[in-house]
Structures are given as C-alpha cells and as structure tokens.
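Collaboration report, partner site 2.

Our partner group contributed sequences for two proteins of shared interest, and the home lab folded both. The records are reproduced in the order in which they were received, starting with the first partner submission.
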Amino acid sequence: MNTQITQNPNTYQSDARFPQVQDDEIDLRELFAVIWRGKWIILAVTALFAVGAVVFAIKQPNIYKSEALLAPASEEQGGGLSALASQFGGLASLAGVNLGGKGGTDKTELAIQVLKSRQFTSEFIQKHNILADLMAAEKWDRDADKLIYDPELFNEQTNTWVREVKAPFKPEPSMQEAYKAFSKMIVVNKAKDTGMVTLSVEHLSPTVAQQWVTWLIQDINKVMKERDVAEAHRSTEFLNKQIASTNVADIKTVLYKLIEEQAKTIMFAEVRDEYVFKTIDPALAPEEKAKPKRALICALGTMLGGMLGVMLVLVRHFMRKEQNLESRV
C-alpha cells in the first residue's frame, strides 16, 4: 500500500530561508574572527595614529581670543534728520542730501561691512605696522610677552623680509595676502535680537589680540565719523549754493533747516569718539587659550587609527579569500 506523504509548503520556505540566516551568522562570526586574528595589526595602527595625534597636538601653538561687546551708538543721533525726512524728504533728495529715512542704509551694518573690507584692513595693517605680527609670528614668549618670528620669513634684527616665494609674490607679503590672513583672525557677529555686536581677534599673543580689538574699534569709529563729516560738509556747501540761487522764501527756509541738521551731524561727530560703536565690555588679554583642543585632536586621531586598522584587516582578509577562490577555479 502506497502512502502519500504531504508536507506543508511553508516547511520548504522555512527550510529555504534557514540556510540564509545560518550563512549570515557564519559571516558575522567570520567577521569577528578575522578582526580578532588581526587584533595586533589594529592595535599597532591605532597606537601609531594615537602617537601621531599627540605629537601633532603638542606642536600646535596656543591661540588666544580677545573679544569686545559693542552697542550701536548711531541710534542716538539723527533724531532731527528723521523728523525732517518725513516732512521734506523729497525736497532734500532733490538737493542731494540723504536724511537717513526708513529706506536708508543701516549705519551699524555699513560699519561692519567697512570693517571687513579690503581697503580698511590694508589701511589698518599699514597704519599700525603689524604686517610682521600678522604674517611672520611663529610663537609667543610668555615670560617676555614678546612674539618670536620665523627666521625663514622675517629677520627681526634688520627688519626685512627674507622669505623665498615664486612670482608674482615678493618677499614682503602683499596687502592681498595680508587681508586673507587677517580675515581668518577677525570675527564680527551681530545679534539679531539685541543688535549687539561682538568683535573678536585670535592670535598667538593674548596682548596682541587685545590691542588689535582696541585699535579696530577706535579706527572704525574714526573712519565712519570722517565719512559722515565729509558728507555733511559737502551737503552744506551744496545747500549754500542752492540758497544763493533761489528767491523762494519757503525753499530757503527748508534749506536752512537742512543746513542746521548737517551742522548737528558735524557737532555730534566732533564731540564723540565712540561714533558708531559704543564699548559695553572692552577687550581683555585672555589668560586661557581658545584653541587648539588637544584632547579632542588626540581622541579623533586614535579613533581614526582604530577605524583604519579594522578596514586594513578586513580588506586584507577578503583579498586573500578572493585569491584563494580564483586559484581553485
């Protein structure tokens, strides 16, 4: 008597899937086995990268950050001009005078952009003679509070540049090179909610960083003051010519008021040194470094070495495995 044995199709499916799961487990076991067999290679590579990271971190010089908190001082002026802008804005525009209405340029934002400009930076570097401190400083002597320059770049005794460069560069760095280096050291941030401005400088010397922040605040206030005073003088001269050329009494009255506001602008600029930015928290010479983060450098270097060691062991294993398979075929 023949008996038929019926089997559930699900049994075949589960049996078909089981070897795949088993193969996956074997692959994982093989993977961990390979890593364990290559543990000395992994440890050696990790140790090599760890030592390299430590040496690299130690050789990095300390960078100090000095910053100052500033408040826009320009908001306190221009009350009369704002009032005139709503009344005589059109006539003033015809006269060539900007009364600073709602559509005018934000003086604080303008000052920030001038501060970041190439022209201002070049004039700042030349005025304070800081090109060597910017481009040739190698390290800072804490005891003497003095910068030590790289002898391959700058000869301090003769005050000459000795660096070797290819054309079109010259031994003495150009203002374009200096601007790129200076832009990496200075940071200007404006808070959107309060309008406060933070000006910071990073340098090898905390004293130099503090001095540069102080000079930057003084110079930007002076530059913006001179710009407004020059503009006010030109506007006053133009308005006086307009008064002399018109016989309409009402227009003369308006023009006299405009001249009066220009005189107020000049007076305001002459009596205040903090013309655009008022110092709320002045710059100090920091006692602690801002960077480098040596512990983080060491940790990242060690982690990178471990990952590279594992990859090296796995690649080496699978390459050998592939070669063995090819040789059998």
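Second partner submission, folded after the first:
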Amino acid sequence: MYGILCSILLRVISDSHRSDLVPADQHRYVPWNIYRLDKRARVAAPLLVHLIRAYDQALRNSNPNCIVIWHSACILLTVDINVLERATGRDGPRSMSECRSSLTTWVQTSAARRACLHAAQTFRALLHRKPVNGTAFQSVRALFISALVLSLYILTTSPHSATDDTSQCDPFDLSGADFDWKVVGDEGISDSDKAIMALSETSNSEHPAVNFIRFGGPIVFNGKTYRPGARYAQRMILEFASLLDEVSTHWMADYARLLYMVHDTMVGHDSV
C-alpha cells in the first residue's frame, strides 16, 4: 500500500509544472483548477477519491505513514506548495509579502479549507502513531507542509470574514476523530466549487467536514480555538514544530528548525 501511494504521490508531483496553463486570477492558487484542463493531470483527483473509497478500512488499519502519503497528495491538489514556501520567506521579504497577498485569494476557496482538513489529519495521524511504525521521510515533509498550510491559512484569512463569525456556527474540530472521507468525496477538488457558491444556507450537509469545506467557519485544533491573526498562526507553527521535534530523527531535524524560523516571520503581517 505504501508503494502504491508513493507512486500516486509522484504522479501528482510530476503534474505541478502545469501552473502556466491558467492565469493566477483564474486558478486562485488551487492546483486542481489547473490540472482539470490537462488530460493527463485531471485523473489525479478522481484517483485519490476512488482509492480512499476502496481502501478506507485498509488505510485505517495500516501503518499511519500510508494515510499521511494520501493526505500529502490531496494537499498538493489544493494548494500551490511553491507559493506557500515563498510566503514563509524562502525567496526574501519582497516575495514573501507578494505571496501572502496572493494567498488571501486562496483562503477563500473550498480547496483551501479542504487543505486545512488534510493538514490537521496529518498531524493527528503522526501524533497517535506507535514507535514501532517508524517515521518515513515523506511523512516528516508532509508534516512540515501541513504546518505551512494551517498557519498561513490562519494568517491570511481576514479577521472580518463572515465565515469566522462565531455567532453563526460552532467551531469545527479539524484534528478530531477520523473523518469519513468516503462521504467527503471530491468536495474542494472538483468542478463543484461554482455550484457550491450558488448554494443557499439550507444546503448544509449532515457531515460537519463537508460543511466546513463548503462554508468555512471558526476552527479548533488539538483542543484549542484558532482565529485569524499572527498570534494564532505562531501558535499553530509551535504545535507542529513540537511534534516534528518528537518524530524526526537527527537527519530530519532541519524541518523543525525551519518551522521555528517561520514562527518569527509571522509577526508584522499587514492583515494583523
């Protein structure tokens, strides 16, 4: 199963060079919006959805590194990793500011909210792993990327967004019990985005995860409530850095050190 999942992940990674197929103002930094225009790349999302529907129980009972690979592949469909890394200062302060501004468009998409779900569940899977399971290199990188997804989502979400009004809905626990991904299906990674925008308030699903992907709302992570802003983004970074310190071996420790550096770049963002 691990080998199959890694093969799928490599296929998704190989499609990432197609970012020039669609102007940025149309794809909103959601890779799936680009891949759907390419005959080869468009099969990735249906493949991942089919895999979880067919092997959901097998993945739940297998080594957690397997489900982490699946989450990692799904994240690659929902956010431009290159933009995330540049938004943390990889290419300097000017590029960081530009990319964070770009992400304010991404955070408004259902794909962004699905990315947060996968990121939080990656954290949960590795938090509850057993020592005998070990930690694959790809899992450590997936945990690092998940930290960027959640922290930058929190940082670049407008504090005045209607989806963050706690009076409208209860906070959703991103890292709670395992979700039924068969019910979640292709929410956030299909052409259903346009249809969702036209849904009325009465079109809520009975599944909380589906509702979060569609409509957003305040979030809970690892027992704590998070709101938009640098302080909460920093707290999220520290949650992941702490887990990375625990799961990484000495030759993977650079990821945790990078997160502590990213923690300091969260201060002073214009939207805070």
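Feedback sent to the partner group on the second submission included the following. Confidence is low (pLDDT under 50) at residues 162-167, 198-202. Residues 64 and 129 are 6 Å apart (CA to CA).
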